Fold this sequence. Notes:
This protein is mainly α. It folds into two domains: 2-44, no CATH class; 54-112, no CATH class. Helix content is 60%, strand content 5%. The chain is built from six helices and two strands. The protein has helices spanning 2-12, 16-22, 36-44, 62-77, 84-96, 99-112; strands spanning 25-27, 33-35. The mean pLDDT is 87.
Amino acid sequence: MQPLTQLRNMVFYNSEVELMARFPTYQTRSGKTMSALTTLREMQAKPWTANVGGDALPEPNADLKRYYEQGVIEFMTGRRPLNRATWEAWLVEFDRIGGKEWEEAGVKFAEENGYLW
């Protein structure tokens, strides 16, 4: 059965039928229609940057990582409104606690190791 199981990927892999089965559309209790497949399609249509070597870049210090992750959560959940003023204030603090240096170290490392094209 293993050869047949392996062939499955050549026949059905990411076909529309498989994707619809894997990411069904559903209704929430509040009546909102949710679809991970629609979100996938929207994200696939957007431009993106390859992250080759991203896992080899320098790690931020613990304070910077905590500030970054907390900021992402607050902006995404709406605890902190996302507008130009709050974003710029967040960036100023991010740079103050070491974000600018971390970014520069990452760009330098990526350039030296051929990760930027």
